[in-house]
Amino acid sequence: MYLATTAVVLAELFKMLACFAVILKEKGSVSGLIEHVHYYTVIQWKDAVKISVPAILYVIQNNLQYVAISNLEAAVFQVTYQLKIMTTAIFSVFLLRKELIKTQWIALCLLFFGVSLVQLSQSDTKSTKTADVEQNPLLGLVAVLLSCCSSGFAGVYFEKLLKGSDISLWMRNIHLAGYGIIVGLFGVYWNDGATVSEKGFLFGYNGWVWWVVLMQAFGGLLVAVVVKYADNILKGFATSLAIIVSCVFSVFIWGFVITLQFSAGTALVLGAVYMYSLPKPQTKILPS
Fold first, then answer.
1. Integer Cα distance of 152 and 93 in angstroms
2. Given a cut of 50, is residue 128 above it in pLDDT?
3. How high is the pLDDT of residue 287?
4. Mean pLDDT score of the chain, rounded to an integer?
5. Of 195, 177, 167, residue with least CA distance to 23
6. What is the distance between the alpha carbons of residues 77 and 70, in angstroms, rounded to a whole number?
7. How far apart are CA 253 and CA 242, in angstroms?
């Protein structure tokens, strides 16, 4: 079994290398690439530091998720974690001054309930408590709520950075990946340092693991593109649809059984997508 902590570091490294390759193609030479990276990392260092905010928040979010999962039933966690849909919308309104009409708020609520039903249909709702594991539901609930707020704020803040400056999407991702590698290496040392020392950094890797790492890396770049040219709310809709599509494929690959609950959740998600995409009503200007 490979080490998940090392996979995180490698995914960030591949993401950085891909961004370097894009900038190299744009600049046409290695010297142009070095000059570009030096300017936006050293000369404009304040902009490089700004990207540390979402990077740190993502680390906090991951740790809060671990606390939440350890102290909540799986079903409760899966439902409450979908509140990140609403926190993302709220932060978009306050940080980006995004205007959402009543129909769109209703669509977001439908999306929340729909994704929750779909996620619950995949989980075993039996109690996960055991005699030797004591859970603190209040701590778990606080952790998952803070995780949702961290997720929403980090995503919207990153969107604001992408759209609010002349720094390219690729340069932003180089900075984000750089912080991710630093934090990731600390995670490797903290959690799996002994195993890495004994068996090596790439212990357990095979073709499938490398494929997952590559998909994680380039999937992260695709998310950044969506955030840059659309927004975090639409990213949430796309993620929800992806969950449904993956479940449909699971029917043919792993024999996943489509239940009434899954069908109801899918219908809610599709309805939410339709409602959110409806054009906003035009404000009629009365002649004077």
1. 11
2. no
3. 57
4. 87
5. 167
6. 10
7. 16
